[in-house]
């Protein structure tokens, strides 16, 4: 398994290109199942999860063609995917594949809406706690699906097609909202979703579906209204920039000090996180090219932050913020309200000398003067990158083991950081 070696203490200066959003790309690829025509996605990041979803879709009979390079393109430009689900040959998504990537469970919605049936494995647990699918199932039932659990599989049927309905989520769920929108797009009649997730990726997927002929209004707000249509067609769509990647590099620069432009980044996608950085004393300037992040030699003010659904501070940046605050000038608090058990990084950060106490969903971080490099282990995607951030500011060498988690969500992380002066390299197994 690959490892990443980091020698800490260097400031970051230069620019980092931000890739297309993983969390928009995955549901966009899944939306291709809704039509016989070709969906063309631009600015798709080169990530392990994209490759895995390609395999999962391939199992249903979907052809994915990756466009070649154009003149003038650099290796950082996103890929163009041509996805064609003209013939769906299998409506089962097996355990071996779904268990490796939770979001692949979402194929249940387009398969059911278009084919009248779907058999998708329950995803099972993962490193960040129990992540149930009860609300996704509830949404499909509200649209008239008959659901049965059989041998670890969710079997969904709608012989005469789905019918528009009212879906009120008791809790904000991104996956639930994606699933409801995709299913309702091909249902007969009108669907109203209340307490919908407002994440930018929801709006991006709805924008693409509307280009495909869907009638979705209100995406990006908590009330979404969908007029079902009989069929959807092909479209061409450019994936929005990755706000989690943006926030991660912003925190890396805040950690080491320096001056970096995050190219293509859009501040409105992560305003809550940028506000926290500004409160901590980081300079954040929107520019024509993206967002400029700078910090001089002065220290970081501690913060008190609670994760929330969008537009609040994202859970997917919680571990990175915690790494940053290990060097704050005083005591910070971070409360995680979205996922239980999403503090796997705490023990590993402690190996670098961080002082963090946990009490239920609240972490208290006492800033220390210095961190010291050590071997650490990556546990999940966001936790792994928090270790990289801490290592960039730690004295001496840190070896991050099990970096395959990083490759799921960060495109060429070591190249992007090395390009700004970090001493970081991948050691291939
Ligand atoms: C998505 C993101 C993930 C992010 C998360 C929260 C993708 C591919 N993944 O995950 O990176 O961390 O949103 O912003 O976009 N819940 C239920 N029942 C359900 C579904 C969810 O109780 O049926 C709960 C979850 O346990 C969690 C909360 O709702 O506590 C939010 O989860 P959800 O928004 O659904 O996360 P994902 O869509 O899986």
Structure, described:
The chain is of the alpha/beta class and 429 residues long. Helix content is 31%, strand content 26%. The chain contains 14 helices and 24 strands. The protein has helices spanning 22-31, 48-59, 95-98, 108-115, 134-142, 174-185, 200-211, 243-256, 271-280, 318-325, 345-351, 381-393, 404-409, 413-418, and strands spanning 3-7, 12-17, 38-44, 63-66, 79-84, 92-93, 117-121, 146-150, 153-157, 166-168, 190-194, 215-217, 223-227, 235-238, 258-263, 283-286, 290-295, 304-306, 331-335, 355-359, 362-366, 375-377, 397-401, 423-427. The protein has a four-stranded mixed β-sheet. A four-stranded mixed β-sheet has the order 2-15-17-16, with helices on one face. Strand 22, helix 12 (381-393) and strand 23 form a beta-alpha-beta unit. Helix 1 runs parallel beside helix 7 (200-211) and helix 5 runs parallel beside helix 6. The chain starts with a strand and ends with a strand. The relative contact order is 0.16. The mean pLDDT is 95. The structure holds uridine-diphosphate-N-acetylglucosamine. Uridine-diphosphate-N-acetylglucosamine binds next to helix 1, helix 5 and helix 6. The site of uridine-diphosphate-N-acetylglucosamine has 20 residues, from helix 1, helix 5 and helix 6.
Q: Which characteristics define this entry?
A:
globular, alpha/beta, 4-stranded mixed beta sheet, binds uridine-diphosphate-N-acetylglucosamine, 24 strands, 429 residues
């Amino acid at each position: 398994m690959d490892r990443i070696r980091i020698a800490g203490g260097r400031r970051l200066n230069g620019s980092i290109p931000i890739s297309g959003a993983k969390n928009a790309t995955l549901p966009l690829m899944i939306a291709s199942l809704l039509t016989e025509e070709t969906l063309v996605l631009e600015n798709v990041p080169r990530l392990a999860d994209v490759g895995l979803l390609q395999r999962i879709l391939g199992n249903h009979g979907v052809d994915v063609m990756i466009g070649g390079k154009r003149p003038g393109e650099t290796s950082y430009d996103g890929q163009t995917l041509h996805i064609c689900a003209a013939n769906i040959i299998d409506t089962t998504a097996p355990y071996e594949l779904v268990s490796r990537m939770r979001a692949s469970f979402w194929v249940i919605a387009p398969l059911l809406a278009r084919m009248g049936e779907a058999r998708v494995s329950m995803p099972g647990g993962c490193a960040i706690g129990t992540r149930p699918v009860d609300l996704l199932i509830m949404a499909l039932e509200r649209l008239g699906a008959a659901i049965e659990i059989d041998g670890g599989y969710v079997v969904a049927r709608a012989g005469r097609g789905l019918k528009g309905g009212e879906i009120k989520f008791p809790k904000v769920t991104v996956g639930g909202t994606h699933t409801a929108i995709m299913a309702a797009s091909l249902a007969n009649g009108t669907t109203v979703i209340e307490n919908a997730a407002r994440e930018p990726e929801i709006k991006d997927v709805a924008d693409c579906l509307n280009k495909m002929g869907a009638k979705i209004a209100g995406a990006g707000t908590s009330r979404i209204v969908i007029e079902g249509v009989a069929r959807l067609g092909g479209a061409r769509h450019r994936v929005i920039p990755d706000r989690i990647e943006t926030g991660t590099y912003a925190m890396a620069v805040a950690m080491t000090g320096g001056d970096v432009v995050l190219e293509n980044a859009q501040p409105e996608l992560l305003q809550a996180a940028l506000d926290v950085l500004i409160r901590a004393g980081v300079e954040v300037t929107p520019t024509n090219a993206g967002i400029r992040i700078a910090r001089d030699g002065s220290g970081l003010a501690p913060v008190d932050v609670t994760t929330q659904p969008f537009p609040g501070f994202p859970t997917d940046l919680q571990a990175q913020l915690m790494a940053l605050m290990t060097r704050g000038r005083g005591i910070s608090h971070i409360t995680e309200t979205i996922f239980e058990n999403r503090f796997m990084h705490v023990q590993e950060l402690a190996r670098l000398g961080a002082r963090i106490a946990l009490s239920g969903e609240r972490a208290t971080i006492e800033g220390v003067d210095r961190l010291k490099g050590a071997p650490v282990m990556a546990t999940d995607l966001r936790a792994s990158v928090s270790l990289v951030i801490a290592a960039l500011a730690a004295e001496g060498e840190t070896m991050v083991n099990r970096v395959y988690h990083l490759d799921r969500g960060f495109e060429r992380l070591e190249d992007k950081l090395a390009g700004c002066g970090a001493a970081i390299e991948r050691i291939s197994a």
